[in-house]
Amino acid sequence: MFVFLLSAQAFAQSDLLRQSQAEADRKSKGCVKCHAGVESIHQSPAVKLGCVDCHLGDPQGKTREEAHVKPRFPERWPTSANPERTYTLLNEENPDFIQFINPGDLRVAQQACGSCHAEEVLRVQKSMMTTTALLWGGAAYNNGILSTKNYILGESYSREGTPQMINTVPPPTADEMLKKGVLKFLAPLPRWEITQPGDNFRSFERGGRVPRINPSDIGIPSFLEEPGRPDNKLSDRGLGTQLLISSPVLNLQKTRLNDPHLSFLGTNDHPGDYRSSGCTACHVVYANDRSITHAGPYAKFGNRGYSFTADEKISTRESGHPIKHQFTRVIPTSQCMTCHMHQPNGFI
Fold first, then answer.
1. For residues 299 and 332, what is the distance between their CA atoms, to the nearest angstrom?
2. Which of 1, 158, 231, 335 is the most exposed place for a label (fewest CB within 10 A)?
């Protein structure tokens, strides 16, 4: 089965690489009737791809409803712009719709970008920019969530949006782990409401023998305490009730949503946070910064996430659109900063 999958992938890759311009045009015929003027996603004329090679849909569709892939939650996608603060919406959406709006999303990139860039997609899926293993691992050890300095937590989702474990194949040797930092595996972050507070953020845990009115009372000596038995034991209440949780795990979960990495869209709610997900998060530029120092040639497009495409169907006065429907390898600092500027990252 493994050999068959490799052969099928190689066949699909070579098939697209040999595709003629006429074949690519046939796959885009209906699309460009509405999206007249849309830029070619690849600037190189050597790449000949039709719209449906990446975005799926039906190029023979006569109407928008016939041509476009349908979302599971149409009310969450009122326009073609990236909605504000989608959080985990992509994990719940139809994978075909995700590929329709963003073929570079890591849930579907293997079928889209991976047709030609299989190795690069695999590397991105296991990269630290996707898994955020450094942040989660450092926070887990420093706050007493885990007792190991070797990172075992990382963010990754299947095509269906399910959190998944990722493994190094073949497993690294002890020498590779020690000298090169290669990890055997990364597991999903545990659910915050079932984690016990095995850390030093005890002010978030109001348990104990003596009723406490204010959590900040933790650490203040009490004459009611028995000698040798300080009143700071864990509560008898159930997990997830009245803040009986590991607050650093909750903080990591909030950071995962409010300062998303490559698995999710940017929050797309103010300058500096307009971006897509996956491969597209870096290689398709959004208008985020008016400084020529930070944004270079993209500074002239402002910082409101507006589109400057020639596509007649895309609004140019609505935030949440890329500047153009076009990949680039000239990625400005302003694009990097959409991820690397927020707490608790240490970029600046």
1. 10
2. 1
247-258 vs 133-142: helix crossing angle, rounded to 10: 160
Question: Identity (one letter) of the amino acid at 108?
Answer: V
> Which one, of 89, 335, 347, 143, lies nearest residue 252 by Cα?
143
Total count of residues recorded for the chain: 348
Nearest to 155 by CA among 126, 112, 178: 126
Q: How many CB atoms within 10 Å of residue 19?
A: 16
Compute the Cα dihedral for 67, 68, 69, 72 and give only its sign: negative
Residue-wise pLDDT tens digits, 30-75: 999 999 999 999 988 889 999 999 999 999 999 999 999 999 999 9
Closest to 40 in 3D by CA, of 30, 31, 50: 50
Residues 6+ apart with CB under 8 A from 272: 288, 289, 303, 334, 337, 338, 341
Alpha helices in the chain (DSSP H): 2-17, 21-26, 31-34, 51-55, 64-67, 89-92, 95-101, 114-125, 128-131, 133-142, 174-180, 247-258, 280-283, 292-295, 333-340
Cα of first residue to Cα of last residue in the chain, in angstroms, is 47
Q: Distance from CA of residue 129 to its chain's centroid?
A: 9
Rounded Cα gap, residues 270 and 304, in angstroms: 7
Closest CA to 195 of 234, 166, 232, 229: 234
C-alpha–C-alpha distance, residues 54 and 149, integer Å: 41
Following CA atoms 280, 282, 284, 290 in sequence, which dihedral angle do they give, to the nearest 10 degrees?
140
- pTM, entire model: 0.82
φ and ψ of 155, to 5 deg: -95, 125
Contact 217, 231 (CB under 8 A): no
CA distance 249 to 146: 11
